[in-house]
Amino acid sequence: MPVGMPMPTPPNQRLENHRPGRHNAWKEGGIVPKLKNLPPNDLVPKVPCLFSAEEIDRRIGELAQEISRDYSNSDLVVVGVLKGAWIFMADLVRRLTIPVHCDFVRVSSYGSGTTSSGQIRLELDVTTEIRGRRVLIVEDIVDTGITSNWLLEHLKRRRPRDVRFCCLLDKPSRRECQVTIHYTGFLVPNQFVVGYGIDWNEHYRQLPYVGYLPDTTSDDPSG
Ligand code: 5GP
Ligand code: MG
Asked: What structural domains and CATH numbers belong to the chain?
């Protein structure tokens, strides 16, 4: 496993914690989970592996089989949630054995200062006509569930036949609202994960595996 591949050094900025209720707080204003033992600037960050490229590949094969079976003879639109889901979606749709249309949305949550309101801002919307069609939302990770619920309501307004969720990772320990996830890659513990499309301040997306930032949890109460 190519842990330790050359990576850009994370910017030297204040690192804070994500606490429950501070939905996506690490996405705003450089607020990220506390990273104790931040590697010195001259060291390549090491990201321990949670799920290897091989494990991900195998699981995606299983999910693709299931989805292809469930949506055979359907008019399926797969909607990827940028940016985190782009690699997962690319790998998933290439394993499907049914015709699909692909589209994307991009959302961010916002708040003021260090507290996030959990409100969602739509930055890119689907352009595909989804009325009467079946929609599968592909997400990187479902955490509090706020994004997923918002997306569900947003897309339902366009009167699709149905909308389902597929996520690579599910972090159920931090759920704040109920979400029905139809296809889940892996359950993850309450740790801040990166890699395989998922970032920390735009770093680590290109890791071929899913890892975690050591000494972090999503809601570490210290600092
Ligand atoms: P939710 O609305 O479910 O709380 O948040 C979902 C989004 O939060 C994900 O799509 C992802 O962008 C971000 N997120 C949640 N947990 C993590 C994590 O462990 N690592 C990273 N990098 N992003 C996360
Ligand atoms: Mg996401």
From this structure: 52-190 (3.40.50.2020)
